[in-house]
Amino acid sequence: MFELEATADLLLMNPQAKASMEPAPTETRVEVVLVTAALAGDRDGFGRLYDMYASMIHGILLARVPRGEVDDLVQDIFLHAFKKLHTLRDYGAFGPWIAMIARNRAMDFHRRSREMVEVTDDLRSTDNSTTRAKEILELICDLPEAYRETLVLRLVEGMTGPEIAERTGLTPASVRVNLHRGMKQLREKLSYTEGV
Fold it and tell me: How much is the mean pLDDT over the chain?
């Protein structure tokens, strides 16, 4: 309580102290500039948004849909985002906005396609490292959704925790928790499959 009163007294006596305690105005985020440019007709601006967010969208989809469908869906999502960009209210929230579009498209994909493809020996890869990577990706895809997405973005797309948080709109703490718990569950699944 004493510190609060002392701070209040300092601010009342010294207006410059008040100015030094206020946060500095933040710079305009690059997403805001690029969205504004894209809305003004600059296709290069949207191309830069694509370059910034394509790997994130790829990871989100990879965690949710069959691998063979991911590349086409990434293109479809960015085309949809380009057409609907005028509906984005907060230009600085482009990452979370397009991530939500990707999650919704993945749900739509599963609603529309219920047929399963049987994997035969002809379709299996003979490369053991590729086979192992596919097995691990399948294990990740069996995890709860929150862990699945953050693990794919981290392990497959190579994004750091802070990048995942910034681009998806999750808090850094949520990303850390999801990565920690997801890795723990993945290790348990790996030790179980290796022990079998």
Answer: 80
Q: How far apart are CA 37 and CA 161, in angstroms?
A: 28
Tell whether 109 and 130 lie within a shared domain.
no
Q: What is the pTM of this model?
A: 0.64
Q: Does position 19 have pLDDT exceeding 90, yes or no?
A: no
Angle ∠(43,68,79) on CA atoms, nearest 5: 20
Report pLDDT digits (tens) over 78-131.
999 999 999 999 999 999 999 999 999 998 887 876 544 444 444 444 556 677
Contact 183, 146 (CB under 8 A): no
Range of the domain at 43: 29-113
Give the dihedral sign, CA 25/29/35/41.
Answer: positive
Token pair 């006596």 is at which residue? 13
Give dist(CA 189, CA 152) in Å, integer: 16
Q: Coil, strand or helix: which one is 22?
A: coil
Q: Residues 88, 147: one domain? A: no
Q: Residue 61 in contact with residue 73, Cβ under 8 Å?
A: yes
